[in-house]
Amino acid sequence: MQAGNAHYRLETDLPASVPVFPLEAALLLPGGRLPLNIFEPRYLQMLDGALAGDRLIGMIQPGLDGACKANGEPELCDVGCLGRIVSLAETGDGRYLIALQGVCRFRVVKEMAVKTPFRQCRIAPFLADLAEDSTASNIDRPALLKTFRAYLQANELDADWESVSRADNMMLVNALSMMAPYGPAEKQALLEAPDLKSRAETLVAITEILLAREADDFGSSLQ
Question: Strand pairing partners for 23?
């Protein structure tokens, strides 16, 4: 079972529909924790509703092609991740500071016609995310850490390597995927990777491509 999923073991533990929060380049993965600063009125209402109910919302990206619906709202990606509100603090200026704990990914079945100011979707959860990932022990951890460390060094970024060294493979892969400063397409590819081993391999591949691109750009600037 993924960390933080004690509430959710069966499909019947999950809702058939959820309010969704479209946010570009934001990645939530099962077991991961995502901090958010909520200030838009309709999403404050969404959180109030979730807190009064099952505390679940769906994090999802707007469609990668930039297409919009007839009402001007962006189309949504097909896959998102359910998050449970595990902490909330109100600020003095009307904002909510929350943390979401990733539960499981979902596929959008249909966007619902609703009267609420926030969007809601019928979903099909990825039930395999509620169980232990059998590929976790097959991850090439040294290669993953080496590649990601090289990317951080090349971009003059840092990480809490002591915490990284203590993390198990599931926490490591998902935490690195979530903290990676990559774009929407890369984030969606990491989200949609079928299992943890595939996600680790995808993260290494994306990072190596970006490192090579940065090296080419640096070489070009010297010419």
Answer: none
Report the C-alpha gap between 55 and 77 in whole angstroms.
22
End-to-end CA distance of the chain: 53
pLDDT tens digits along 72-102? 899 999 999 999 999 999 998 999 999 999 9
What token pair was written down for 32?
A: 């991961």
SS3 assignment, position 11: helix
For residue 13, give the DSSP letter.
G
Q: By 3-state DSSP, what share of the chain in percent is helix, strand and coil, each rounded to 5?
A: 40, 25, 35
b/e map 97-124, b = 16+ CB within 10 Å: ebebbbbbbbebeebeeeeeebbbbebe
Looking only at the bridges linking them, the beta strands covering 56-60 and 96-111 are unpaired
**Is 127 in contact with 147 (CB distance < 8 Å)?**
no
Distance CA 51, CA 219 (A): 52
Global confidence as pTM: 0.89
For the beta carbon of residue 200, count every other beta carbon within 10 angstroms.
Answer: 27
CB atoms within 10 A of CB 136: 17
Cβ neighbours for 212, distance < 8 A, ≥ 6 positions apart:
none
CB within 8 A of 73, min separation 6: which ones? 119
